Amino acid sequence: MGNKLETGICRWPEEVIKLSRELAGTRLRQVIGSFIQKHQLPADFSHEIEAYYLPLALWLMKRHKEGQTLVVGISGGQGTGKSTLSDFICLILAKQGFNCCTFSLDDIYLTHSQRLQLSQEVHPLLRTRGVPGTHDVQLGLDTLDALCSAGDQSQVSLPRFDKSKDDRVPSNLWPVHSGKVDIVLLEGWCLGAKASITPIRPINSLERLEDTSGSWRRFINQQLEGIYRELFQRVDIMVMLCAPGMESIFEWRKLQEQKLRKRTGAGMEESELDRFIEHYERITRNLLIDMPNWADCILYLGEDHHIRAVSIGVQIGECKG
């Protein structure tokens, strides 16, 4: 992956490596096997879990301070594996006696009617969920505040969004987290994104043909400079799943959609998916350049979608993009 990556990589702390090997070979062995089966992962994924997923969970566990709620952000482009990683970390932390909770930026999208109104008042492209400006950021802040201040008897409702209906699940059907929270895992494809500092010229056909004035792009930038910054600043530790480039993200997202069509018979065709991903391309490319310079932990993915290296607490420059 080039000299930048090779010179910047550091290993997990020795005590984390030792504990990870011990647990993977003893009482967590069956847990790992069940996780792989439940998530329909390939059998050789156990190596990735033992080399990266489990050490990361243990490393985060050691970052937690008694009596405080640690907010961990997990950022990465579409199809990088954020949900799988979050689920595994939460499972392992629970096995280690921590009260853990996960929620996603995907679960705080504005309702369908709210986005429809936004598309009429600001720009038609805002009808499509995903980009900054299409989330209820205040709902995210309120949820984080409730989780971080929760006590033993607290009941905190966690927002949910139904992508099959392109609308938020009614609040009376949201899952409820009971009790205090030691660690919150907040994941999202644009988590930690910053406003673009480059000239806002079109970078793909969507921007060129459907945002000729640049007003959609300017609105997104304004959002990232506003309330989104407040939400992102609530993250104590940022973990990034770093793809080798935008081309890989296009490919992995297409594979996700193919599996969805095979499983449910529904899903976007390739041309529809290309246009959909182009909504996120600008921010994703900026994240690939910017976030490796400051994230607390970076997991570098190869083109085969497997994690190839880890960097902890060092600045090593950009991902390929």
TrEMBL record:
It comes from the Bacteria. InterPro entries: P-loop_NTPase. This is Phosphoribulokinase.
